[in-house]
């Protein structure tokens, strides 16, 4: 490994290493996201179409600062794109979480089969007593039941347990630590 120069307080790039606020990151590795970046991300998550001037006003920053931070977040991969968040009229009427227990050595084949289910909105490999959790969405309970039955019939699936989502109390995307807005002093 290359020797590292001293870490300073100013951002600078030195060879393959990036030093920022005393944190060293590989140029192809982790990106430093500070409280201001988190605030900008939270505001964009609230409304990805918010004009830069409004973002700047709400963050207490200049427009150019906000624009350069957004560009840096995009280049660094913290912002992967901008998407439509579907409203209630376009979402599935019913969702279920299906916990799936697999027979040994069937993870790949079951995963491949589950990828072809149009009702599966998310598929997670998890630790614990089950191996996977599928989030299934449809317009009727009959369609949910049919999807769960088809999942259970797959070769390599030992057992399924399902839970219908009655209400979503919190739904978040983005950073786990969201900054609070700055209070401007006048």
From TrEMBL:
It comes from the Bacteria. One of its GO terms (biological process) is regulation of DNA-templated transcription. Gene3D superfamilies: 3.30.70.920, Winged helix-like DNA-binding domain superfamily/Winged helix DNA-binding domain. Keywords: DNA-binding, Transcription, Transcription regulation. GO terms for molecular function: sequence-specific DNA binding. The keyword DNA-binding applies. This is HTH asnC-type domain-containing protein. SMART domains: HTH_ASNC. InterPro entries: ArsR-like_HTH, AsnC-type_HTH_dom, Dimeric_a/b-barrel, Tscrpt_reg_AsnC-like, Tscrpt_reg_AsnC/Lrp_C, WH-like_DNA-bd_sf, WH_DNA-bd_sf. Residues 33-95 form the HTH asnC-type domain. It holds the Pfam family AsnC_trans_reg. GO terms for cellular component: cytosol.
């Amino acid at each position: 490994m290359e020797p590292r120069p001293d870490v300073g307080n100013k951002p600078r790039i030195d060879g393959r290493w990036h030093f920022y606020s005393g944190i060293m990151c590989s140029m192809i590795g982790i990106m430093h996201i500070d409280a201001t970046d988190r605030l900008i991300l939270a505001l964009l998550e609230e409304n990805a179409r918010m004009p830069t001037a409004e973002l700047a006003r709400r963050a207490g920053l200049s427009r150019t600062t906000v624009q350069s931070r957004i560009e840096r977040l995009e280049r660094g991969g913290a912002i992967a794109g901008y998407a439509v968040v579907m409203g209630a009229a376009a979402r599935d009427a019913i969702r279920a979480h299906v916990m799936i227990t697999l027979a040994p050595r069937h993870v790949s084949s079951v995963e491949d089969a589950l990828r072809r289910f149009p009702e599966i909105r998310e598929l997670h490999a998890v630790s614990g007593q089950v191996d996977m959790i599928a989030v299934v969405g449809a317009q009727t309970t009959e369609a949910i039941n049919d999807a769960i039955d088809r999942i259970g019939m797959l070769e390599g699936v030992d057992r399924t347990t399902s839970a219908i989502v009655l209400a979503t109390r919190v739904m978040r995307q983005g950073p786990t630590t969201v900054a609070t807005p700055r209070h401007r002093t006048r």
